[in-house]
C-alpha cells in the first residue's frame, strides 16, 4: 500500500448523555461500513464503542470521540476510534467492564495523542477495501456528512435485528451439534453391536483364549463410558475422550492379530473401517487438545542444539508414505552443513510435518518441497507446493481455527493444522508466513532465530 492518510478525522462526536451512546454506536457502524470493513466487523467495533462509551460516561462523565485511519506497522490500514475522556481516568488506567470488549477489536489501550489521554481501539481494514488516499478520505467524510444520526429507538431496532441474526446462527450451530451427537451415538451403538457379535462367534470357536475375552470386556466398558459422555464431547473436549478412541483402535488391532481366529472378508472389512474411523477421530481429538494446550500456554519448549539433517531425514522417511499420488513428488532437500539450530526438536518436527502434510493433501500434481536456508541469525524453512494456490484476501483466514478455503479444492480435515502450527512457531520465537496466489501454488515460510526463543 502507498500513500499516507490525512490527519483530519473522518468524523467527530461528543459523548455527554445516555442518548449519545446509541448515536456513537450507529455512527461507528456507518464509519466502519464506509471504509470497507465486513459486516461482522462493523457490528464488532460498534458494540465495542457502545460498551466503552457507557463505561466512560459512568466513570468520567463523557468523552470526545473521533474516527480516523492509520497506517499500521504491519503494512495494513486500521480504522481507529479515539475516546478522549472529559475528566481524568481513575488511576490513569482504563479497564473495560467486560473482558469480551477487547476481543471485539484488534487493539484496545490507553494512549496519549497530542498531550491528551485517549482510550483507543482499532480494527484492521481488509486488503480488498479501497486504499484510503487523501481524495478517498475526503469522499468518506462527505458521505458521512450526508447522513444524520437516527433515534435511539431506531438504533435499538437495528441492534435487536443483529442479536436475532446472531441467535439464529447459534440455533443453527446447536442443531448441527445435535445431529453430530446423534451420529456419534449411532456409531457407538454400531461398534457395541459388532463387538457383541464378534464375542459370540469367538466364544463358539475358541473357549481357550480367556485372556483375550477379559481384555475385550475391559474395552467394552470403555466403549460404554464413551457412549455416556458423547453429549459433552463438543462442549468440553478433554483428555478423557482419548481413552475410548484408543480402545477402539486396540480392539481392532486385536481382532486382526495373527494370533486370533481369522475373520470373514466382510468382518475384516468392517473392522478395517472401524480402525480407520477411530484413527480419524483420534486425530481430530489430538488436534483439538493440542490447540487448546497451545492457547492455554501449557506447552513449554525444551530448547536444545538440534542438527537439522537428521530431522529432515526423519521427515523424508515418515512422510513418504503419504505421497500416494504418482503425479506428486515429495522433495526434502538436505540442509547445507553445519546445520545447527537451538530449538525444540519435537515442536519443530510437528510444524514441518504439518506443513508438508497440508501440501500433500492439496497438491494434485507436481511436487511438495522442503528446504532450509540460514540468513544471518535466523533459519528460514520453506515448504513449497504446486497446488491450486490461495487468494491474497484469504491469507489471514486460513490461520483461523476451523476455517478451510472454499471451492473445488477443499479436502477433508478440521481446519486446525495451520493455526496450531503458527502457535507452535510463535512459542519457538519465530514467525509463519504465507506467499500464494490462485494458480501459483503456495509457500509457507517458518523463520526461527538460531539462538532459540
TrEMBL record:
Recorded catalytic activity of this chain's protein: ATP + protein L-histidine = ADP + protein N-phospho-L-histidine
Record has Phosphoprotein as a keyword: yes
Annotated InterPro entries: HATPase_C_sf (IPR036890), HATPase_dom (IPR003594), His_kinase_dom (IPR005467), HisK_dim/P_dom (IPR003661), HisK_dim/P_sf (IPR036097), Sensor_HK_Regulatory (IPR050736), Sig_transdc_His_kin-like_C (IPR004358)
Cellular compartments annotated: Cell membrane
Coiled coil regions in record: 153-215
One GO CC term, this protein: plasma membrane
Annotated ranges, domain Histidine kinase: 236-452
Catalytic EC class: transferase
GO molecular function: phosphorelay sensor kinase activity
Pfam families in alphabetical order: HATPase_c, HisKA
Residues of the signal peptide: none
Alphabetized UniProt keyword annotations: Coiled coil, Kinase, Phosphoprotein, Transferase, Two-component regulatory system
EC number of the protein: 2.7.13.3
Alphabetized PANTHER family for the sequence: HISTIDINE KINASE, TWO-COMPONENT HISTIDINE KINASE
Protein name, as recorded: histidine kinase
Lineage: Bacteria, Bacillati, Actinomycetota, Actinomycetes, Micromonosporales
Amino acid at each position: 500500500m502507498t500513500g499516507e492518510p490525512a490527519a483530519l478525522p473522518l468524523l467527530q462526536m461528543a459523548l455527554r448523555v445516555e442518548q449519545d451512546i446509541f448515536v456513537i454506536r450507529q455512527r461507528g457502524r456507518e464509519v466502519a461500513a464506509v471504509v470497507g470493513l465486513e459486516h461482522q466487523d462493523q457490528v464488532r467495533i460498534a458494540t465495542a464503542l457502545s460498551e466503552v462509551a457507557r463505561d466512560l460516561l459512568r466513570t468520567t462523565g463523557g468523552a470526545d470521540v473521533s474516527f480516523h485511519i492509520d497506517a499500521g506497522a504491519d503494512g495494513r490500514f486500521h480504522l481507529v476510534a479515539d475516546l478522549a475522556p472529559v475528566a481524568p481516568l481513575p488511576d490513569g488506567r482504563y479497564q473495560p467492564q467486560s473482558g469480551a470488549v477487547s476481543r471485539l477489536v484488534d487493539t484496545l489501550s490507553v494512549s496519549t495523542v497530542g498531550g491528551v489521554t485517549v482510550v483507543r481501539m482499532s480494527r484492521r481494514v481488509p486488503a480488498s477495501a479501497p486504499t484510503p488516499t487523501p481524495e478517498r478520505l475526503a469522499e468518506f467524510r462527505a458521505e458521512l456528512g450526508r447522513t444524520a444520526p437516527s433515534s435511539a429507538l431506531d438504533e435499538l431496532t437495528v441492534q435487536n435485528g443483529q442479536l436475532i441474526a446472531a441467535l439464529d446462527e447459534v440455533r443453527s450451530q446447536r442443531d448441527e451439534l445435535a445431529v453430530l451427537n446423534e451420529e456419534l451415538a449411532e456409531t457407538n451403538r454400531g461398534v457395541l453391536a459388532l463387538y457383541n457379535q464378534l464375542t459370540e462367534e469367538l466364544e463358539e470357536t475358541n473357549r481357550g483364549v480367556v485372556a483375550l475375552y477379559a481384555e475385550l470386556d475391559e474395552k467394552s466398558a470403555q466403549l460404554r463410558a464413551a457412549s455416556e459422555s458423547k453429549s459433552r464431547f463438543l462442549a468440553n473436549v478433554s483428555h478423557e475422550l482419548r481413552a475410548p478412541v484408543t480402545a477402539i483402535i486396540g480392539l481392532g488391532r486385536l481382532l486382526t492379530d495373527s494370533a486370533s481366529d481369522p475373520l470373514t472378508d466382510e468382518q475384516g472389512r468392517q473392522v478395517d473401517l472401524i480402525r480407520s474411523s477411530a484413527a480419524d477421530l483420534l486425530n481430530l481429538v489430538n488436534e483439538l487438545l493440542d490447540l487448546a494446550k497451545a492457547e492455554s500456554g501449557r506447552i513449554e519448549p525444551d530448547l536444545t542444539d538440534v542438527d537439522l539433517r537428521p530431522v529432515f531425514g526423519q521427515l523424508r522417511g515418515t512422510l513418504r508414505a503419504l505421497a500416494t499420488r504418482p503425479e506428486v513428488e515429495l522433495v526434502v532437500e538436505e540442509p547445507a552443513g553445519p546445520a545447527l539450530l537451538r530449538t525444540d526438536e519435537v515442536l519443530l518436527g510437528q510444524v514441518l510435518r504439518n506443513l508438508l502434510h497440508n501440501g500433500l493433501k492439496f497438491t494434485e500434481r507436481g511436487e511438495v518441497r522442503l528446504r532450509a536456508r540460514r540468513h544471518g541469525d535466523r533459519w528460514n524453512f520453506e515448504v513449497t507446493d504446486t497446488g491450486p494456490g490461495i487468494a491474497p484476501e484469504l491469507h489471514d483466514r486460513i490461520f483461523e481455527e476451523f476455517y478451510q478455503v472454499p471451492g473445488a479444492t477443499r479436502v477433508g480435515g478440521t481446519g486446525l493444522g495451520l493455526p496450531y502450527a503458527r502457535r507452535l512457531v510463535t512459542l519457538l520465537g519465530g514467525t509463519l508466513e504465507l506467499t500464494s496466489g490462485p494458480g501459483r501454488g503456495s509457500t509457507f515460510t517458518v523463520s526461527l532465530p538460531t539462538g532459540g526463543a
